[in-house]
Task: inverse folding
């Protein structure tokens, strides 16, 4: 099997950015070994489809576009009224099987992992960094763990998800692959002013 | 800057939305070839002072079309409902 190639391959350089010493205010890393599956349905049959998914994934399916449900290494986002994203590890056998099985006429299941670049933004100033471009309040009181928002940064469509652990600022940003380099340029340029570190891709 | 309360995503900045035009004006039937009626429908707008029914798409959010009632003087937004739940001859609440 050919390996997935990062959209950031040509511009991704691990190391310090901005301040050369002291604690890194922001820590950036690409999350490479991920898979993303989109499940779309129709209004009438969507509740029934969700019940089936609940049994398959052994967890609740989110009812709104504000909070994701994270369980067993997967995160489920309701990105539209009848549209879900399920993010998981690249070697998630259940998700891989799910994509290849015929889902019937009530669902359209599409593997879209290669269409998105996932960048993790962490550190004490992670929120400051993202809010230089993101018009969404990321304060913990209104944007707790598993809160997510589809929005726009630097004119680039993004989905921002606050992951755990509780009490730390860790955000996964899903960017369309064709804008990944532009987003990365914006992110690293703003991060330079705050002082940070780019880690090896996970 | 408007803040629009998307029924799916919550209150968000205008930059995430695209204006989709006047929601109150309908179009003639496709079989209707009358040029004046089509010119009216495509180009002529009322530009009211006060309540205005309009379509917005939450383009960078949930991608859904929304039916918004907005005051053109104060910019105050009275209601936002999914466009698919609003009928063309809808009242102020879109239903
Ligand atoms: Zn929305």
Result:
């Amino acid at each position: 099997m050919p390996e997935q190639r990062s959209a950031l391959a040509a511009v991704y350089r691990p190391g310090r950015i901005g301040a050369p010493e002291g604690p890194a205010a922001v820590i950036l890393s690409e999350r490479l070994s991920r898979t993303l599956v989109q499940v779309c349905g129709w209004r009438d049959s969507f509740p029934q489809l969700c019940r089936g998914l609940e049994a398959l994934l052994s967890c609740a399916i989110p009812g709104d576009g504000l909070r994701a449900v994270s369980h067993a290494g997967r995160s489920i986002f309701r990105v539209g009224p009848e549209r879900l994203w399920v993010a998981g590890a690249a070697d998630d056998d259940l998700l891989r099987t799910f994509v290849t099985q015929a889902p019937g006429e009530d669902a359209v299941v599409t593997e879209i992992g290669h269409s998105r670049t996932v960048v993790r933004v962490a550190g004490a100033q992670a929120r400051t960094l993202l809010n230089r471009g993101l018009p969404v309040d990321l304060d913990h009181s209104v944007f707790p763990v598993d809160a997510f928002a589809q929005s726009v940064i630097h004119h680039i469509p993004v989905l921002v998800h606050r992951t755990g652990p509780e009490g730390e600022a860790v955000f996964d940003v899903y960017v369309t692959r064709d804008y990944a380099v532009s987003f990365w340029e914006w992110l690293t340029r703003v991060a330079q002013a705050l002082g940070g570190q780019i880690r090896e891709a996970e | 800057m408007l803040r629009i309360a998307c029924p799916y995503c919550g209150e968000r900045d205008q930059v995430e939305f695209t204006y989709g035009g006047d929601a109150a004006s309908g179009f003639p039937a496709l079989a209707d070839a009358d040029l004046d009626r089509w010119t009216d429908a495509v180009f002529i707008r009322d530009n009211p002072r006060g309540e205005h029914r309009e379509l917005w798409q939450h383009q960078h959010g949930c991608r859904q079309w929304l039916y918004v009632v907005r005051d053109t003087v104060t910019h105050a937004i009275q209601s936002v409902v999914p466009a698919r739940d609003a009928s063309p001859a809808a009242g102020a609440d879109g239903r």
User: Anything to note?
Assistant: The CA atoms of residues 24 and 88 of chain B lie 6 Å apart. The two ends of chain B are 27 Å apart (CA to CA). Chain B is about 10% helix and 35% strand.
